[in-house]
Amino acid sequence: MRGSIAIIQPPDRSGEYAVVFPDVPGCASCGETFASAVAAGREALSLHLGSMRADGEAVPVARSYEAIVADPDWAEERQGATPISSPRAP
Q1: Rounded-to-integer distance, Cα 52 and Cα 77, Å
Q2: What phi, psi does 33 have (nearest 5°)?
């Protein structure tokens, strides 16, 4: 996987930022600050993809930012969120 777009959602009622990966279903994380959410998201992505590889599952293909923006399934999650590109997962 070249890199995956993460969507960092603004703090919710708990005060934490949520991190979701549109191209990696089931992979999510959170953090008390934006920076800690990004770090936790990177770790979650690495562990999730590592687990998929260990289980012999196919690693999802990363889409471009433009493709994710055009995906209506992610319209609500993107509102008020900050998209970032994570580095290549190991």
Answers
A1: 24
A2: -120, 165
Full 3-state SS string of 5-74: EEEEECCCCCCCEEEECCCCCCCEEEECCHHHHHHHHHHHHHHHHHHHHHCCCCCCCCCCHHHHHHCHHH
Q: Please state, in angstroms and as integers, the Cα–Cα distance from residue 7 to each residue in 40, 43, 66, following that order.
A: 13, 15, 13
pLDDT digit string, tens, across residues 1-33? 457 888 898 898 889 999 999 999 999 999 999
Q: Enumerate residues 6+ apart whose C-beta is below 8 A from 26.
A: 48
Report pTM.
Answer: 0.79
